[in-house]
Amino acid sequence: MGSIFRSEMMNLCQLFLSSEAAYNCVSELGEIGLVQFRDLNPDVNAFQRKFVHEVRRCEEMDRKLRYLEKEIKKDDTITILDTGENPEAPQPREMVDLEATFEKLENELKEVNSNAETLNRNFLELTELKYVLQKTSVFFDEQGSTPPLPPQNESEPTSSITQNLIPAEEGKGPVQLGFVAGVINRERMPMFERMLWRVCRGNVFLRQSEIDTPLADPVTHEGVNKSVFIIFFQGEQLKNKVKKICEGCRATMYPCPELGSERKEMVQGVQTRLEDLTTVLTQTTDHRHRVLAAAAKHLRTWFIKVHKIKAIYHTLNLFNLDVTNKCLIAECWLPTYDMGCISEALRKGTEKSGSSVQPILNRMDTTMQPPTFHRTNKFTTGFQTLIDAYGVATYREVNPALYTTTTFPFLFAVMFGDAGHGILMSAFALWMVLKEKSLATLKTTNEIWKIFFGGRYIILLMGLFSIYTGVIYNDVFSKSFNIFGSSWHVKPGIPDTTLINDKQVTLNPGDREEYIGTPYPVGLDPMWQISANKIAFQNSYKMKISIIIGVVHMLFGVMVSILNHVFFRRVINIVCEFIPQLIFLVGLFGYLVILVFHKWVNYGEGPEFDVQHGSSCAPSVLITFINMVLMKKENEEGSVCSQYMYPYQYIIQMVMLIICVICVPIMLIPKPIILKKQHDNKVIMRQLQRQRAESQEEDGMAPAVHEEGDEAFEFSELFIHQAIHTIEYVLGSVSHTASYLRLWALSLAHAQLSEVLWTMVFQIGLRQQSIVGAVMLYFIFAAWSVLTISILVLMEGLSAFLHTLRLHWVEFQSKFYSGEGYAFTPFSFKHFIEGETEE
After folding, report:
1. What is the mean pLDDT of residues 571-585?
2. Coil, strand or helix: which one is 305?
3. Local structure of 15: helix, strand or coil
4. Which of 209, 375, 577, 786 would be a feasible disulfide site paired with 3, CB 3.0-4.6 Å?
5. Backbone dihedral region for residue 477 (phi beyond 0: left; psi -120 to 50: alpha; all else: beta)
6. Beta-carbon contacts of residue 5 (< 8 Å; ≥ 6 apart)
7. In terms of C-beta distances under 8 Å and separation of at least 24 residues, what long-range contacts does 114-123 make, across chains too?
8. How many CA atoms does the CB half-sphere of 638 hold within 13 Å?
């Protein structure tokens, strides 16, 4: 509790480590994750530091491991084993063994991949040759072994084309016509055909046939659709043109024998070679699979070891070396509470290294601002993240996250007050909480899921608080529950036809035949749900509740500020800021809240209220407050109703207004003047000390004291800053109070959207009184459920969440929270392993 309320006390320490023990000591500190090291070599280039060679070796090992990981992911049958083991950082001498292992695996895998690629390329070429021989045999059989003459009609090509390309060789036909055959990508076939027709002027004859089965690319292993072609031509000149066109279109030409017997013999030879290649490819694939499967068992452990070694050497690069190069000197921030734990870790590291020189940990006096460190658990981490997103707390400043654990879900629930929607939200969050161990192990890159899971306890509380406010509003999916029996009844003597025909009823609390005078035990009476004046009643109620909650929330923020002033011993801030701020806020807006309660208690309908305290004579709280600020006095002559709620109201209001106005210059003027006076006194004291020291030096009694120059003090800058702070608080008190009306606005909007969704969607099926309506209701309920979750729970929930976040960041935290610190980022292996920190 102490750490979440106010950040941990931090110490700046100097650490002396022997060269042989430094690695193991830093390793032990990385395991506990409680030390933040300072860079003592800020001006030294990263490539000029002592351990840059070791860091590069780690980066090379990391590259090899990532190569192995990529190859393993290509094989869908292999999974990387993750046992959750967290091995210790290896000793420096073990780096050689790791490097040798990774080098051997990489070379073996590269060799296997290279051989497999070569075999796949040979397999592809033989497969294409087989299809060329088969397709050309069919063509020659159709033509009776006589190659056709070129077409006489030169208007269009003789055939159309579609696919992939490959080179070709020449053969001789029985009619002194040359031909080439090959394979081409199917999508390049139209272009290939047009180019042949135009370049050769129609003096070639092209036939093509599509290969039904896609052929695997030897590099990408993706299926590629291809076509077999054969081109007939006459003469050496056309032969050269055809070959150049085939090369330009990336077609592959294959030798095709002239005689059918030679083609059949060649097909048999190709088939035999394909069978042999298939056997070799299977063995190569099995060997690659075995290599990757063996590596997958240890890959995660290897990654952790390499990351730990790299993190240690990165940290050692922040240290300084003494003149003998036998000692490393570091400066670090660490929590005061954990000094014993850190000393024990250093002792263990020294013993592990076998060094006889014990490490030395000295506290240092410093004027630097320490980092801010809040110990959090899985419940408070989400709330602390919300606060840190606005700004990290100044060192030892009161942390708003402690109060946010309650105020945040409550303010959200005021805007999201529906018990049904709260149950849906709570159920989802409860599932994440109960399954958090299994869900935490899922490796996902979905940012939305990470946000939901990280804030599971926030969502759970928001849902539970929404159920509470939904019960207070008596609102469950825009409907109400009548558990205790309504306090409103139908007047005697009203016929049933009137009740059936009147769709809406206006409730009148003053009519005792309608209202029995006893309020509904919990929340709003369910009868308000069907009343014609429901909106008017809820508007007034929720608006006043919003103002009350807002003023109480801001007053609490002002009260928290005194904890900071007392802790930091800022007496001037207590007198010149806290007291006038409190008086100003209570005198104006606290008084407004008192008027609201006074009106609720002393004005109403019924026999217990006289005429002047009836609902018709109840003065408007808003008008009363405006008249108070404007110092306007109402003329009550000839009026039965009094404009004042209690005796001497005008005088009391004027006194409070004058006091509030006096508080403004108190907030503005005294503080800069007092600080200027204190600074002048310090300057005078320093001058006297300097003169005394000089006189003693002249008398030979003491050496001269050399002091640093006086700190710069700008009175005008300080006064302007105080003026801005004062204006911001005075105007902010008005705007911030009005800002809390968003509680009222979003609450009404959520209730109306829920009611509209029920009326326009769900009642479509409920109005049907036949079997068709029952069938329709099945599908309408599905649509209503989808719209409810997507619009009312997700979209409206996100809107209420953002508005609640703004009320905390601006309206609440501005009263006491500066957020000018920087976070404590300790050296921890956990961050490196989980990828939370990049070096």
Report:
1. 94
2. helix
3. strand
4. 375
5. left
6. 398, 399, 402
7. 115/284, 116/281, 116/284, 116/285, 116/288, 117/218, 117/219, 119/277, 119/280, 119/281, 119/284, 120/216, 120/218, 120/221, 120/281, 121/218, 122/277, 123/218, 123/274, 123/277, 123/278, 123/281
8. 0
Residue 700 has pLDDT above 80, yes or no: no
With beta carbons less than 8 A apart as the criterion, state whether 216 and 222 touch: yes
Contact 25, 349 (CB under 8 A): yes
Q: Tell me the pLDDT tens digit for each residue of 222-237.
A: 888 999 988 888 888 8
Q: Per the structure block, which two tokens stand in for 61?
A: 């090992």
Q: How confident is the model at residue 709 (pLDDT cuts 50, 70, 90)?
A: very low
Exposed/middle/buried for residue 506 (C-beta within 10 Å: 0-12, 13-18, 19+): exposed
Cβ neighbours around 272 below 10 Å, total? 11
Residue among 453, 423, 424, 427 at smallest CA distance from 438 = 453
Contacts 24+ apart (CB under 8 A), 199-204: 199/241, 199/245, 200/233, 200/238, 200/241, 200/242, 201/154, 202/150, 202/151, 202/154, 202/157, 203/150, 203/233, 203/234, 203/238, 204/150, 204/231, 204/232, 204/233, 204/238, 204/242
Q: Alpha helices of 711-770 — where are they, by DSSP H? A: 715-739, 742-757, 763-766
Q: Which tokens is 87 given?
A: 């091995």
Rounded-to-5 percentages of helix, strand, coil across the chain:
60, 10, 30
Q: Which two tokens stand for residue 163?
A: 């696919």
Encode 632-644: b = buried (16+ Cβ within 10 Å), e = exposed: eeeeeeeeeeebe
pTM of the model: 0.81
pLDDT digits (tens, 9 = 90+) for 337-360: 999 999 999 999 999 988 888 899
Question: For 97-256, where are the E strands, in sequence order?
Answer: 164-165, 169-172, 178-185, 205-210, 215-216, 223-224, 226-233, 252-254
